[in-house]
Amino acid sequence: MPALDVNGTKHEVAADPETPLLWVLRDDLGLTGTKYGCGVAQCGACTVHVDGEPRRACTTPLKAVLGKQVTTIEGLRSKSGKAVQSAWVKLDVVQCGFCQSGQIMTAAALLEKNRAPSDRDIDRALTGNLCRCATYQRIRAAVHAAAKTLGG
Amino acid sequence: MHGEHADDGADQARDPVDDAATTRETLSRRGFVRLATATGLLLGMQLGRGERARAAPAQGTGESGAADALAPNAFVRITPDDLVTVIVKHHEMGQGTATGIATLVAEELDADWSRVRVEYAPSDPKLYNNLAWGPMQGTGGSSAMKAGFQQMREAGAAARALLVAAAAKQWKVPAREITIERGTLRHKSGKEARFGALASPAAKEPLPKDVKLKEPRDFRLIGKEQTRRVDSAAKCDGSAVYTMDVKLPGLLTAVIARPPTFSAKLVSFDAKAARAVPGVTDVVKVPEGVAVVAKGMWAALEGRKALKLSWDTKKDAGLSTEALLAQYKKQAKTRGARAVEHADTKAQLAKSKQVIEAVYELPFLAHATMEPMNCVAWLHDGKLETWAGHQVQTLDHQLAAEAAGLPLDKVELHTLISGGSFGRRANPWSDYVVEAVHVAKAIGGRAPVRVQRTREDDLRAGLYRPLYVHDVRAGLDAAGAITGWAHTIVGQSIQAGGPFEAMVKNGIDETSVEGVWPTQYGIPNMSVDLHSPKLPVRVLWWRSVGHTHTAFVIETMMDELATAAGKDPVAFRLALLGDKPRHAAVLKLAADKSGWGKPLPAGKARGVAVHESFDSVVAQVAEVSLTAQGKPRVERVTVAVDCGLAINPDVVRAQMEGGVGFALSAALYNEITIEHGHVKQSNFHDYRSLRIEDMPHVDVHIMASAAPPTGVGEPGVPPLAPAVANALFQLTGERVRRLPFARRAPKQA
Fold it and tell me: N or C, which end of chain B is more exposed by having fewer CB within 10 Å?
């Protein structure tokens, strides 16, 4: 069985291959930045990157990501990822913060593909990421701000 | 893991048992507000006791050099590494209270904001009493800034005085010649030192007897845009620790199979298959249901799925939202308990030129915090430790101790940040804390255990904003002035049936009627009745409590009356706010900034509402259009808020933006419905929540004010739904009297 590659480190995990990646990350690897919010891909709090694409870890079985590169909030090192994080901090986007790992992972993936997203592009990319504190206005502003620092 | 409470000596021994017992008898948010004059005596240098700079209790991460620390009171610690640690007695659930408290302490210290850290206080109802509604430690009612404004600044000022005294001694200069700027003390002779270098000598200085607080004109952090949130970075890189993220040696995870209806009883269960699931360590019966304990969440969930359970749900067979609404509407036509009675109401309505009658329906609502309820409990060495988003520490402490069968001093709470509360974590049953203690007990304290609710568990567990029906009749005379107002509210009491029962007076729970009565308007001949039916569904405060429904009814009715009177809705309200200059000013500000009265493109309309809650006044103007499907689309909301002095203007704006979004979520979509005792909704697919594409542009305007600060966590919520409903009327000619809007039949644009 191929190894699980998370944030550039390969792990041998004993978990059942059907186990959702979310619980492998949190319970087996101790990477708790990725959150559980719904378990059914309705809230986006568990968003990680699999080979650079945003994926909901709560409905992605371990077996589906073996041999692929998984990136979590703890391992977000890309230029767009860093730009997103610093825009988030600069604009104080967070309130409770629980959904923000997922928001940031989704936003970073968006900026990898689209360096100058419109409000509509942002809404489309982030529609799967719920925020009960409703920080959406600042999320939009921070994605634009990050895009600007990336030269978009 | 954390420091000990400093020893104040035997004469200072406190008796938390007595404290908690007393408070449970009398406690209520409103009751505590009334006690404010009494607790006012505590103000002024009541910052912890002892002559010498005492070590503040330290907790969690960030503990550094406590031995050399300057810790003159229970709220601040300055360490030789030049960090200022503010000990926050409140619960940070996103509302920004930690930033606010730290701002107050750091202001009087003239601390370097980039060197300020926060940690969360241990449970101690005396040291960490909420001065707005104690005696008890807790967060709620948008009270932290109001309650802490004096005390937290004094805490900072006391530390400042000690640093200055130590520098004066070292430099052999008069204390009055020393200045402080951003964490550096200076003397005109050229001498200077950072806080960290003076922490240890300052700790040896005697505490000042009194301190002088700054004049507002000298503020460098309070009210300033550059004073940013203290918790942003950790919440953006995954390092912030919530209850879900607590790591302890051997920590187990448990989920509980819970009753499918509110009063269902467990008849029998078979745990054989559940025990066979790899990773499951225990299956135990607890008062809340059957707990499956495992090494990790997935095994716990798989184990729960494998349980065979038999429940008796007969008792709840008749419990349905539709039946309740029918019953409530009937009850609304009968006389209830009187919140206020005016002898002339009936006669005035009878001779009115016009009488507007309306019946409103408002659903059960779940809080649906992003982090579902959870708590870690660890019974070891004759004590209990808990880790949770403890919002009312004193209640959680007492109920956890009762559940564990331990005295209060053998129970230690670790208050963590939480992924939202909206009222959910402040409850008189401490339900999600107590169940974790039950599971910890059931496994004999073998290991620490986290009881984690799934989204479904959480959404179906009750503790909802109650279902309400309002029945209103209001009259107008020939000149379009209000003649009388008869109002009946039907809905469960939040405070009855629990430790808050004593606050229900003559059948009136103030949290059921607040916002209708007392009224902010000069309404003549007003009578308000209340029916408080009892149901097996537990209910709870939900961000802005009674104002969640009363503001909707009052502010849509005001709009209806204005229309019937042929008057502008803003002018109509202003005429009734003659003795409320704050309200009038806020309403005018929102109207001005929104372009009220100026024409809009076809297909767009504005609606307005203004409402006072938690001592703050908020007005909102919503600009609304209809989608091609005839659904409301809120494009823009202009907010004006008077919250006294805005300690952190950007946090105030964030709370207004969030309040708008949270309220819009409820107005558009949120509804818990019950059928034969079962909750129909289960997760975010059917308890739909606001998504980014639904979020309007929100402009926030803060009234300049020198008055003491008031709340902002809740007051942004109440005006939104009525403002949107009033705009919808302009677009469709139809009055929305039932929430959420999704329930109204869509009308083509």
Answer: N
Give yes or no for B228 touching A (CB within 8 A).
yes
Residues of B in contact with A146 (CB under 8 A): none
Q: H-helix or E-strand containing B623?
A: strand B616-626
User: What number is the ipTM of this complex?
Assistant: 0.98
B204 pLDDT exceeds 50? yes
Mutate to test the interface with A, among B92, B97, B226, B235 (most CBs of A within 10 A): B235
Chain B residue with minimal CA distance to A32?
Answer: B245
Handedness of CA B564, B569, B575, B578 (dihedral sign): positive
CA distance B555 to B571: 14
| pLDDT at B743 (0 to 100) | 67
| pTM assigned to the model | 0.93
pLDDT at B500: 76
Q: How many CA atoms lie within 13 A of A79 on its CB side?
A: 10
CATH 3.30.365.10 boundaries in chain B: 10-235, 243-314+373-452, 321-364+464-743
Task: Give per-residue pLDDT as tens, B32-84.
Answer: 332 222 222 222 344 543 333 443 444 433 344 467 899 999 999 999 999 99
The CATH topology of domain A79-149 is: DNA polymerase; domain 1 (1.10.150)
- B95 to chain A: which residues are within 8 Å by CB? 95
User: What element of type H or E holds B617?
Assistant: strand B616-626
- Mark yes or no for CB contact A132/B244 under 8 Å: no
Return the pLDDT at B15. 32
The CATH class for the domain spanning A4-75 reads alpha beta
Burial class of residue A118, CB neighbours in 10 A (0-12, 13-18, 19+): exposed
Nearest chain A alpha carbon to B683: A38
pLDDT in tens, B139-176: 999 899 999 999 999 999 999 999 999 999 999 999 99
Rounded to an integer, the average pLDDT of A117-122 is 98
Q: Does the distance separating the beta carbons of A32 and B247 come in below 8 Å?
A: yes
Task: Compute the nearest-CA separation of B201 from chain A (Å).
Answer: 36
B590 three-class SS: helix
Query: Chain A interface, mutation test: which of B97, B228, B242, B298, most A Cβ atoms within 10 Å?
Result: B298
Find out whether B539 and B498 touch, Cβ atoms under 8 Å.
Answer: no
**Cβ–Cβ under 8 Å, residues A99 and A43:** yes
Taking the CA of residue B518 as centre, how many other CA atoms within 13 Å lie in the half-sphere pointing to its CB? 6
Quick one: what percent of chain B has pLDDT higher than 90?
87
